[in-house]
Design goal:
two-stranded antiparallel sheet, 2 domains, binds zinc ion, alpha+beta, about 40% helix, two-stranded antiparallel ribbon
Length: about 140
Amino acid sequence: MSIRPDIAELLRAGCSDREVTRRLNVDNRTVATARTSLGLPLHKPGVRPASSPQDSFRQRTRPVDGGHLEWTGHRTNCGTPFFRWMKKGYTAGRIAFVMQHGREPIGYALPGCGYRGCVAPAHLEDQPMRDQLKTQMAGIFGGAA
Ligand SMILES: [Zn+2]
Protein backbone atom coordinates (compact mmCIF):
# COMPACT_ATOMS: atom_id res chain seq x y z
CA MET A 1 0.00 0.00 0.00
CA SER A 2 1.11 3.58 -0.43
CA ILE A 3 1.62 5.78 2.57
CA ARG A 4 0.74 9.43 2.46
CA PRO A 5 4.02 11.35 2.65
CA ASP A 6 2.64 13.83 5.19
CA ILE A 7 1.66 11.00 7.53
CA ALA A 8 5.03 9.32 7.08
CA GLU A 9 6.81 12.58 7.78
CA LEU A 10 5.03 13.21 11.07
CA LEU A 11 5.45 9.62 12.20
CA ARG A 12 9.16 9.70 11.41
CA ALA A 13 9.40 12.95 13.36
CA GLY A 14 8.22 11.06 16.43
CA CYS A 15 4.57 12.19 16.65
CA SER A 16 2.05 9.95 18.35
CA ASP A 17 -0.76 8.37 16.33
CA ARG A 18 -3.24 10.66 18.04
CA GLU A 19 -1.26 13.75 17.14
CA VAL A 20 -1.01 12.72 13.48
CA THR A 21 -4.75 11.96 13.40
CA ARG A 22 -5.54 15.37 14.81
CA ARG A 23 -3.10 17.38 12.74
CA LEU A 24 -3.87 15.81 9.37
CA ASN A 25 -7.51 15.02 10.01
CA VAL A 26 -7.14 11.36 9.06
CA ASP A 27 -8.57 8.34 10.83
CA ASN A 28 -6.75 6.29 13.40
CA ARG A 29 -6.52 3.14 11.33
CA THR A 30 -4.82 4.88 8.42
CA VAL A 31 -2.17 6.19 10.80
CA ALA A 32 -1.72 2.84 12.56
CA THR A 33 -1.37 1.03 9.21
CA ALA A 34 1.15 3.62 8.03
CA ARG A 35 3.18 3.17 11.22
CA THR A 36 3.25 -0.61 10.78
CA SER A 37 4.24 -0.30 7.11
CA LEU A 38 7.05 2.06 8.00
CA GLY A 39 8.21 -0.32 10.69
CA LEU A 40 8.15 2.39 13.34
CA PRO A 41 7.73 1.43 17.00
CA LEU A 42 4.75 2.70 18.94
CA HIS A 43 5.12 6.18 20.30
CA LYS A 44 5.81 6.25 24.01
CA PRO A 45 4.54 9.27 25.89
CA GLY A 46 6.55 11.09 28.52
CA VAL A 47 10.16 12.14 28.67
CA ARG A 48 12.12 10.25 26.13
CA PRO A 49 15.49 8.98 27.30
CA ALA A 50 18.43 9.63 25.02
CA SER A 51 17.89 7.28 22.11
CA SER A 52 21.55 6.92 21.24
CA PRO A 53 24.99 7.70 22.63
CA GLN A 54 25.03 10.65 20.22
CA ASP A 55 21.85 12.07 21.78
CA SER A 56 23.29 11.49 25.20
CA PHE A 57 26.42 13.37 24.15
CA ARG A 58 24.44 16.35 22.82
CA GLN A 59 22.43 16.61 26.03
CA ARG A 60 25.66 17.12 27.95
CA THR A 61 27.24 19.84 25.85
CA ARG A 62 26.94 23.61 25.63
CA PRO A 63 28.00 25.69 22.63
CA VAL A 64 30.48 28.47 23.37
CA ASP A 65 31.77 31.39 21.27
CA GLY A 66 33.90 30.43 18.31
CA GLY A 67 31.99 27.26 17.46
CA HIS A 68 33.45 25.32 20.36
CA LEU A 69 31.51 22.88 22.46
CA GLU A 70 31.88 22.68 26.21
CA TRP A 71 31.26 19.50 28.17
CA THR A 72 28.74 19.94 30.97
CA GLY A 73 28.57 16.30 31.98
CA HIS A 74 30.56 14.01 34.16
CA ARG A 75 34.34 13.73 34.07
CA THR A 76 36.59 10.90 35.08
CA ASN A 77 39.17 11.38 37.84
CA CYS A 78 41.72 12.43 35.25
CA GLY A 79 39.34 14.99 33.72
CA THR A 80 38.16 13.12 30.65
CA PRO A 81 34.55 13.91 29.65
CA PHE A 82 32.72 10.67 30.14
CA PHE A 83 29.13 9.41 30.16
CA ARG A 84 27.14 6.23 30.35
CA TRP A 85 24.42 5.15 27.99
CA MET A 86 22.59 1.84 28.30
CA LYS A 87 25.10 0.75 30.95
CA LYS A 88 28.04 1.28 28.61
CA GLY A 89 30.68 3.93 29.17
CA TYR A 90 31.76 6.36 26.46
CA THR A 91 34.23 9.20 26.36
CA ALA A 92 32.80 12.36 24.81
CA GLY A 93 35.80 12.78 22.52
CA ARG A 94 35.39 9.37 21.00
CA ILE A 95 31.66 9.74 20.31
CA ALA A 96 32.13 13.23 18.90
CA PHE A 97 34.92 12.01 16.65
CA VAL A 98 32.81 9.16 15.28
CA MET A 99 29.93 11.60 14.67
CA GLN A 100 32.20 13.76 12.52
CA HIS A 101 34.30 11.19 10.71
CA GLY A 102 32.20 8.04 10.69
CA ARG A 103 35.04 5.97 12.08
CA GLU A 104 36.65 5.24 15.42
CA PRO A 105 39.58 7.48 16.34
CA ILE A 106 43.04 5.93 16.46
CA GLY A 107 44.75 6.91 19.66
CA TYR A 108 43.30 9.83 21.59
CA ALA A 109 40.63 12.09 20.10
CA LEU A 110 41.74 15.55 21.22
CA PRO A 111 40.67 19.05 20.18
CA GLY A 112 42.98 20.64 17.65
CA CYS A 113 41.32 24.05 17.95
CA GLY A 114 43.17 25.30 21.00
CA TYR A 115 40.05 25.62 23.15
CA ARG A 116 40.71 23.70 26.32
CA GLY A 117 38.41 20.71 26.72
CA CYS A 118 36.52 21.40 23.48
CA VAL A 119 34.37 18.46 22.35
CA ALA A 120 33.05 19.98 19.09
CA PRO A 121 33.00 17.04 16.64
CA ALA A 122 34.63 19.11 13.87
CA HIS A 123 37.46 20.20 16.17
CA LEU A 124 38.63 16.77 17.22
CA GLU A 125 41.69 15.07 15.80
CA ASP A 126 43.09 11.62 16.32
CA GLN A 127 46.71 10.51 16.15
CA PRO A 128 46.94 9.93 12.36
CA MET A 129 45.43 13.39 11.74
CA ARG A 130 47.97 15.00 14.07
CA ASP A 131 50.80 13.08 12.38
CA GLN A 132 49.63 14.17 8.95
CA LEU A 133 49.51 17.80 10.04
CA LYS A 134 53.02 17.54 11.40
CA THR A 135 54.26 16.09 8.11
CA GLN A 136 52.55 18.87 6.15
CA MET A 137 54.08 21.52 8.37
CA ALA A 138 57.49 19.93 7.95
CA GLY A 139 56.96 19.96 4.18
CA ILE A 140 56.01 23.61 4.17
CA PHE A 141 58.74 24.84 6.48
CA GLY A 142 61.41 22.37 5.42
CA GLY A 143 61.92 20.95 8.90
CA ALA A 144 62.80 17.34 9.51
CA ALA A 145 59.68 15.22 9.90
ZN1 LIG B 1 36.85 23.85 19.55
